[in-house]
Amino acid sequence: MTTHTVTLPSQLDLTIDETSPAGAARTVLVLHGGGGPFTVAPIAAHFASESHVLTPTHPGWNGTPRPEWIADVPALAAVYLQLLADRGLTDVLVIGSSLGGWIAARMAADDTEGRVGRIVIIDGAGIDVPGEPVVNFAELTPRQQAEHSWHDPDRFFVDPSTLPPERVAAQRANMQTMGALTARHGMADPELQARLGEVRIPALVLWGDSDRVFTPGYGRAYASALGNARFESVAEAGHLPQLEQPVHTFAAIDAFLDTLKA
Known about the structure:
The protein is α/β, with parallel strands linked by helices. The protein is built from ten helices and eight strands.
């Protein structure tokens, strides 16, 4: 894997982790959520031996620059469609976790050039589901955040008071960027919700059974709203099943992709 910075035609400098094995069968774009790139590192690693994998750091995360015009998720989706176009890539598998799932769905809705071939949304955001309210994560204490995010919070909870000040500052800055991107409409994109039925490419909506940030009911509604989606749950997993139950998560993704080969 190499980490490098590319400058897009919009003059945006984008930091990307990239693997490109010889004879790669496909390109996979992996999009992280609010927790940052480390939350999707296992996904990138799963595909790295056989696929060209692009894992960008969203502008504003981990100290990367975020121009003022990147003010919401549709702008981020446009950035990644531009990245694929700049590389001349089509039929790309886009996998997004949490905020990244929202970006993946928006990319699929906005794509007019066949850049996105299929999507996997893992505990994604971006819609408003009656009866399934979204938790205001920023208002929770660190312990409450862990209890909402993990099936086994005792295993994954990290007391912020035990962390170095620079790491705490970095996490706080990431959350400030998240807040800036969702300031206009919160965690729901009214344009996307109205257009999900137009997204006809194959989609897998994958959800942790114990997610209390976005409930499984929210995930089922997401799958139902898409034009060509299947819903799969991951037992004993919360908001980040790729970290809590990687074996079951990747088995579900691989099975989905295998059905598309038939």
